[in-house]
Amino acid sequence: MKRLLSLILLLCWAVGASAAPLTIEITEGAEGALPIAVVPFGWVGPGADDVGERIAAIVRSDLQRSGRFSALPVKDMLARPQSDADVEFRDWKVLGMDNLVVGQVRPNGQGGYLVRFQLFDVFKGEQLIGYNFPTTSRDLRSTAHKIADIVYEKLTGQPGAFDTRIAYVVSSRKADGSQEVSLKVADADGFDPQTIVTSTEPLMSPAWAPDGRRLAYVSFEQKKASIYIQEVFTGRRQKVASFKGINGAPAWSPDGRKLALTLSRDGNPEIYVLNINTNALTRLTNHYSIDTEPAWSPDGRYIVFTSDRGGKPQVYRVPAFGGKVSRVTFEGSYNARASYAPDGQSLTLVTRVGGDYRVAVLDLTNNALQVLSDGRLDESPSFAPNGSMIIYATKINGKGELAAVSVDGRVRQRLALQEGDVREPVWSPYTKTNRRNP
Question: Which residue ranges does the record assign to the TolB N-terminal domain (predicted)?
Fold first, then answer.
């Protein structure tokens, strides 16, 4: 059963000056969300500092917007313990809390902090987990997301994805009326956006490398479509495909050594694989129809793509090293923009329902198609690296915005970034720094 939360979190504060105002609206959440209290972390040091309160607020927000937890408002807390010695479990039993998170922050060298947190089972009256995190002012948001990831995994058994990022394209109008298009990267909750590249021409199809450090994308600078790979942290980039005709829809292989592309260098849009190190190009499809939007399976064995070879856009599959093409989708007259779940057991895609375009999930074990979104023009779905949520672009009052939905359709949220027309979001993979607990 679904229920309307009608919860709007106006998160206009941030840890760090580079965060942008953001509204996260949780429009629908799951029944049975776990009650949890995240107490403002205490400050142990000279003077007064609210850094602990800000860290706890991020942890609380992460858990709340997952839809799996119901976080107790700070104003309703009967006490504010900072460590196990301060906890009176009866206070939290009275409030109906299943779990409790407390913590402390103390100075740790020049510009550094040591953050400690503990997670408790209220009814058993015992600690479930606790960690110390050395961090810096610049990394406080990431530290808070890591804490939320650990709590989420301990209580749900599934890895969290709060300490990951999203990339997306923003189109806006400058003061002189000209259009500016930017490729941006932000935290998974939309905060701390960083501009990767800006152009007066279209930017399209961002795709994360498996290492989470590079993005491939299509740029129309110099009035011609070309595919670039750019390092997120250094800004260094290289042009990897600029053939005659279409150069589009880059998709990384799981090992990060190849890109699947849509090229029309031989006349018709077909699926190719480019070896990044050798520049060797392998053609996978050969058909008079349009083949586009490739995506790799997590094991690297297959590539799914969109084709109208059957008369209408549908999803097809081809072995990554070439071979027989087989059709994947059969329900409905339009299915496109497919990509695999991290476990390879399902696809997210765009399907047409009446005259509307919706985000759906196709279970590859039984071919069941479940429509998850309810917009009129929903597009560009991308799985979170833990497979629990799907981020996508939608239209709200004519403006492109980002939204997310859980894979079971029970949790929905909207990320209203305070900038221009937003589209083509893609969720980053896990990296070496956020995949495992410390």
Answer: 22-128
